[in-house]
Design brief:
Strand content: 15-25%
Radius of gyration: 37 Å
Number of helices: 20
Number of strands: 24
Distance between the termini: 112 Å
Largest sheet: 5 strands, antiparallel
Length: about 700
Amino acid sequence: MRLWRKFAIGSAAGIILAGGALLALDAADKAFPPPLDKADMLSPEVLDADGQLLRAFATAEGRWRLKTGVADVDPQFLRMLVAYEDQRFYDHGGVDVWALGRASLQFVRNGRIVSGASTLSMQVARLIEPRAERSFSAKLLQLARAVQIERRLSKQEILDLYLTHAPYGGNLEGVRAASLAYFGKEPRRLTVAEAALLVALPQLPERRRPDRNLQAAQEARKRVLERAAVAEAVGDGEAERAEAVAIPMRRMQLPALAAHVAEAALRKQPDVLKHQTTLKKPVQQGLEAVARAAAMKLGPKLSLAMVMADAQTGAIVGEVGSADYFDASRSGWIDMTRVNRSPGSTLKPFIYGLAFEQGLVSQETIIEDRPADFFGYRPRNFDMSYQGDVTVREALQLSLNVPAVKLLDAVGPSRLLVRFRRAEVRPALPPNETPGLAIGLGGVGITLKDLVQLYTALANRGQPARLGDGITGTPGKLDGEPLLEPVAVWNVADILSGVIPPAGAPQRGIAYKTGTSYGYRDAWSVGYDGRYVLGVWVGRPDNSAVPGLTGYGTAAPILFEAFAKSGIATTPLPRPPAGAVRIAQSELPISQRRFALNASGLLVASGREPAPQIVYPPEGAHIDLGAKGGDLSPLMLKLQGGRAPFRWLANGKPLPDLSRRRTQQWQPDGGGYSKLTVIDSAGRAASVGVFID
C-alpha cells in the first residue's frame, strides 16, 4: 500500500513538473517568438498582365530572393525534396526523433557525422535566423525554433519559406531564382535532372555551384538520384536517365525586361513587392530584341523608343524607353516615350480626317502642291520639290506639306487642337504662341505615348482610348465625342494602308504614317491595324541633329520589324461604315473636284461656283430620332456647293451660329414635319422637308 502511495505521489509530481515545464516552454515561446518577420524581406517583382516575371530587383543586401510557394514549383521536385531531406516531414512536429536517434547512434559508433537529422523545419529556422557558429547551443536553439515554427505555420507555409530562402550559391536564394539563373525558366516544369540539382545545391551551395564547381555539382546530383526514396519518387529508370543529362555550366541573367516601366513602378510604390503592369511579356521581348538589333545599325549616341497599345482597351502591351537602358553613350536611362519632341508629319492624318469630316474634300479631290504663302508662312516639301496637281489621297500618302497646310488653314489649327483634347492629349505649343499653321508640320511638342494615344482613335472607328502609364494608371475607352467621325476615320485608314512599305518589309495589312522633324532631329513612324497601334521614335536624347535621319528610311523599317517580332497576329482594319466609299473624281460633285481657296480664304470650286445643295437629309425623308421615347437625338445636316459662311434655319428659326463647315447638327424640339433651309454668303438658299419620327 505504501508503494502505491509513493507511485501516486511520484506520478502526480511528474505531472506537475511536466505541466510546469510546458507552461515554462509556452511562456518562453511567447516571450521569444521566431523572427518570422525577416522572411518578408524579398525581391520586388514587376509582372506582366498575365503574372509573368518581367524584371526583379535585388533586396537591400543584394540578394535575389523571389517569393516562391508550393504552387510555383513542379510537384515532382517537392516529392524529391521531401524524399531526400525529410521523409517524415508531414508526420513530425519540427524535430524528427527517429532521425535524431539514428544520427546520434551513428556518431557514437563512427566518431564522426554519418547522416544528418535536420528537418526542413529546422532548416527554415536556420535560414530565417542564421548563426555564424555551429555549436551545440546553436543546434538546440534551432531545434526549439523548429518546434515554434511548426506551432505557428502549416506544413505548406513551412515549405513556402524553404522554397523562398534556400541558398543556391552567390546571391541566389530560393528555388525560383535558382531555376531562372541556371535553367532560364520558372520552376513550374522541371525535368528530373533539373529537380535533382535544385535539391542537391542548398546543402553546400558555394562548393556545389555548377558555374564554378561542375564536378562537385554532378556528384551532389548523383547522390540525390541514388537515394532509394528519391528513385522511388521519380519512377523506375528515371534516376539513371537523369544522371546522363548535362549540367548547365553558366549562370544566366534573371529577367530584366521593361527597364523604364519597372523603375517607374518601384518609384510609385516602393513598399509593394509585386507590381502588376499591362505589358505582355512575349510582346515586350520582341520589341526589345528589335530595339537591340536596330541600335547596332543606328550607330553611336542614337536612341529609339517604342510604344505598342491595344486600341480597344487602352492597355500598353509593350514599351521600350531607350535603345539600351545601361548604355550611357545613348543616355539610355532617359525614357524617351515620355519626352516632348516635334512630331514632324505624323499629325497630318488628323488634318485630313477633319477635312473629310467637314466635306471639304474627298480622296480623289484635286489639290495643288505648289509654293504658297500663308501670310508670311511659306511651307516647303521635305525634298524641296513640288508635285503640282495631285489628289488628296496622293498628297497624304506622299506626305506633301503644302496641301496639308492648305487643309489645316481651311479646318482651323485651333479646331484640330480641340479635337486632340477629346483624346486627352494636349501638345505643347511654343511659349507665348497661339495655334498656327506650323503645327501641321510638327510645330508643337508631343510625347510618343500621346501620339500613340491619338492614333488609337484611327484604329478604333474614331473613339480614342486612354493608355494610362502601364502600371497604376487605368486604361480604357474615353467617354464623350469621338475624335473623328467613322467615315472620316475610314478614309484616312484607306489612304494610309496604301502607303508602300519600306524596302524589304513585308506587307502586313497595316496603315502607317511617318514623320521627320525640322533639322533631322526626330524620325517617327506610327502604324496600326484593327486592334493595335505601334509608335516608333528614333533620334538623339540631347535633341541634336542627325543628318540623313528620316521617318521613312529610319523609323518605318523598325516599325514593320517590331510588328512582326511582337508575336501579335494582324487584325484586319475595320470594315467601311455606312456611307463610306471611295468615289471616282468624275463622279464627285463639282464642289469637291478641286480644292482651292479664294483671296478671302473662302473655299471655292473650279469653274462656276454652284449653289448650295442639302445632301442630307434628303427631301421627304422619315428619320427616326427617338421622338416616341421623348428623348430626341440630334440630326446631322450636310450640304454641298455654296459659299461659306452658311446660315441654317429650322422651321424658319435661325440656328445660333454662322458656320463655315458643310456639316451642322440640329436638335429638334419634337417630332413631326420640319423644314430645313440653308443660305450661303451669296444669298442663295436650298430647302428640304423631313419627318422626325
